[in-house]
S-formylglutathione hydrolase
Amino acid sequence: MKTVSENRCFGGTQGVYSHQSEATGCDMTFGLFLPEEAEAGPVPLLWYLSGLTCTHENAMVKAGAQAWAAQQGIALVFPDTSPRGEGVADDGAYDLGQGAGFYVNATETPWAPHFQMWDYITGDLPRVLFNNFALDEERQAITGHSMGGHGALTIAMALPDRFRSASAFAPIANPTVSDWGRKQLGAYLGADEMTWRRHDATIQMHERGFDGPILIDQGADDQFLDKLMPEALAAAMMARRQPGQFRMQKGYDHSYFFVASFMEDHVSFHAEALYS
Amino acid sequence: MKTVSENRCFGGTQGVYSHQSEATGCDMTFGLFLPEEAEAGPVPLLWYLSGLTCTHENAMVKAGAQAWAAQQGIALVFPDTSPRGEGVADDGAYDLGQGAGFYVNATETPWAPHFQMWDYITGDLPRVLFNNFALDEERQAITGHSMGGHGALTIAMALPDRFRSASAFAPIANPTVSDWGRKQLGAYLGADEMTWRRHDATIQMHERGFDGPILIDQGADDQFLDKLMPEALAAAMMARRQPGQFRMQKGYDHSYFFVASFMEDHVSFHAEALYS
């Protein structure tokens, strides 16, 4: 693991690190905020998965999460959204290839060798984090924005013992029937739509749900509502009697200004689960 | 005035607007955060002047100021740092020309026709703001980072009735004797160093001071300490018995992570002056 940068931030440290990943077969970069409390011993960890086009950096500099994480003594990890590099396949569109890993393990050409983001987020990166930093593996929570909200919810439901709480900002809620989903799941996983189902938060909510509290925020003026499909996930949560809440926020769009506006609520929500 | 974008943000609106400026003779772009309270009537205004290489956008997305401004019901304006465009002179270096206006009125070739940032910040832009938005001209305060801290302090001292409070993050404190200053003041204002003196916060602190409270934060691990010269300004403040405080923050560098870490303190500091 290599240290790219470290900056003092809200009494803690905002670091950027890179490491060779077995899963993706390339160098991966991530941001990690450690609160001051990490100097004394392991602290809880909140995962933040980012959306289409983002690297590890966008949320790290634009979501304002460190202020609240520092207040709560929680670490934040900001993974990249795909493998990257010259030897890694890509596509001209913003919503496929580099910057658009969709948190799945690709089985199809040309994506398969590197686009293994599910294994990276659930296997490789946790190993690097818990081996190198003062982080408490028993106290993890997960959130994300847009494609990252999709990743956070599907991963949380698939690994029921790992995360105490899950939240999302404007998640891609029902990708198996959305323009943000059918294209990517088809490209990465192939034509058999049965393999897509574990990567659809609405389907997973119907089939298994999450064994902890869930918080979803969605902007009512989001320019991508037709692709995000919040109504499907909200209906699934209510049908399942899933503990949690789905909030429709008047006037907000899909931007980081929306994410930043409700970040304090999300960090407080996770803190309650992480410290209970 | 043209609306470039508007996003709901912390219950208010983060806007970006452009307008033709008489002072700079070109289109200028600025960011303006209006808290929810501006829907009911004029709110106080905090100016944030940015540093070298920045546009109106950097602090608007990276400083985390809207959270605290919304809490206090204060508007924030984020001006650009120079004139811009094809017809505007520039220099290959990051610290001269576009992105580096230094908040002065240039008298020298090739800068003079457009580089009139002092007049822009103190004349043109205030006119646009108070004519178009629910802002209370009687309740203004000013802050800034690095070159913007220099601008905030020198403008606040030159216009003693305009700002109730002034603060700065890692300001260029003594530019007439610094590598960040001598080059630019020479280029923009010419060889007569007497004309530079009103643009040096340390000299102005010695000669006139500020008729309100001042708050300065400086990172102790700032990579540009030799150019910023905080010791000169701190000595001048104490020699003058200037009400205020100069804080040296252990471990912090020159980045926006430093600015964001202390933004809550600065907004609270200004709120106290603006609401008293």
In short: Chain A has one domain: 2-274. Residues 2-274 of chain A form a domain with the Rossmann fold fold (CATH 3.40.50.1820). The interface with chain B takes residues 7-11, 14, 61-62, 64, 66-67, 219, 221, 249, 251-253, 255-258, 260-261, 264 of chain A (CB under 8 Å). The radius of gyration of chain A is 17 Å.
